[in-house]
């Protein structure tokens, strides 16, 4: 199967490449790279692993992109959120050449429309895909382990945390689905090979935990109690209203508050809600496929084997 990936050097994209290269099925991978990024070490690493690298500007002439996509069976977008609009061009080119499956850039928590601006923009792109009648599969993966853990007093987690989660949202008892970003590609390899996921949304996650359960797990493994700042639902609602009133579009503060509200207060990011919204659940489809546990992830960090996401 010929698979083209946009965003192959990002955190999600790298996981997808890893999963496809290690899969039982045979995938020939093409990484679509911006011309300005060709010399980057991460791109050279892709080449060294046998990934075909092609350069094209998604905002350039459509004919160049169409030519690249002609032999491709599946297009996967893991594009940066600030470049989501380029998916209009990418999906349109995929339709022209008759790509068999297009996987748009979702890769996050489950939520309905009207809760998060970023999610709504992704849904608008899916609307465009629907208008094209382009075969597709949406894949959401929940909240990453890598941005789930709190810092602990000793600082033993610090080297591996890009965004310590020491804010306890309201009661801390709302469940949320979690996945190690390194396991995303394992799920993707199964999903894009499966006819029953065509023109469907799939929720692929590994565990469901509340914040209080995460704090208890950390305390159990470290014998340290993380210090937390409690944020009542009303306070978060106020922060969210102020961020939206600023009217600066999708920015870091607004995105953070909207995610917290969705998975931490509303409880959108659960398999039960995903089923309600029409998703297929990966663990139902592939009961033998399971990513690493949160406990294993925490132990890796304690053993000095953790790595900070977005380090590049």
Automatic annotation (TrEMBL):
InterPro entries assigned to the protein according to its UniProt record, in alphabetical order: NAD(P)-bd_dom_sf, NmrA-like, NmrA/Isoflavone_reductase-like
UniProt entry keywords in alphabetical sequence: NADP, Oxidoreductase
Domain called NmrA-like: residue spans: 2-238
Pfam families hit by this protein: NmrA (PF05368)
Coiled-coil segments: none
Top-level lineage group: Eukaryota
PANTHER family reported in the protein's UniProt record: NMRA-LIKE DOMAIN-CONTAINING PROTEIN-RELATED, NMRA-LIKE FAMILY PROTEIN
Name recorded for this polypeptide: NmrA-like domain-containing protein
């Amino acid at each position: 199967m010929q698979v083209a990936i946009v965003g192959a050097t990002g955190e999600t994209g790298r996981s997808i490449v890893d999963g496809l290269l290690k899969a039982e099925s045979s995938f020939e991978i093409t990484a679509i790279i911006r011309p300005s990024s060709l010399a980057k070490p991460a791109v050279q690493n892709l080449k060294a692993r046998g990934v075909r690298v092609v350069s094209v500007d998604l905002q350039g002439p459509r004919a160049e992109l169409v030519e690249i996509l002609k032999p491709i069976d599946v297009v996967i977008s893991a594009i940066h959120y600030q470049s989501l609009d380029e998916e209009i061009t990418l999906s349109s080119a995929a339709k022209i050449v008759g790509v068999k499956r297009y996987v748009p850039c979702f890769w996050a928590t489950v939520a309905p429309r009207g809760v998060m601006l970023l999610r709504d923009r992704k849904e608008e792109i899916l609307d465009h895909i629907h208008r094209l009648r382009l075969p597709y599969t949406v894949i959401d993966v929940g909240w990453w382990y890598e941005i789930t853990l709190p810092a602990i007093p000793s600082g033993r987690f610090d080297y591996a945390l890009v965004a310590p989660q020491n804010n306890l949202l309201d009661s801390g008892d709302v469940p949320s689905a979690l996945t190690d970003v390194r396991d995303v590609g394992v799920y993707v390899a199964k999903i894009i090979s499966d006819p029953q996921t065509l023109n469907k949304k799939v929720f692929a996650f590994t565990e469901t935990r509340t914040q209080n359960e995460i704090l208890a797990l950390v305390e159990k493994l470290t014998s340290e109690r993380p210090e937390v700042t409690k944020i009542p639902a009303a306070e978060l609602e106020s922060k969210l209203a102020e961020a939206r009133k600023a009217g600066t579009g999708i920015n870091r503060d607004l995105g953070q508050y909207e995610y917290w509200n969705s998975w931490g207060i509303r409880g959108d990011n659960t398999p039960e809600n995903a089923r309600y919204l029409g998703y297929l659940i990966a663990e139902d489809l592939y009961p033998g496929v399971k990513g690493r546990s949160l406990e294993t992830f925490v132990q890796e960090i304690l053993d000095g084997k953790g790595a900070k996401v977005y380090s590049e």
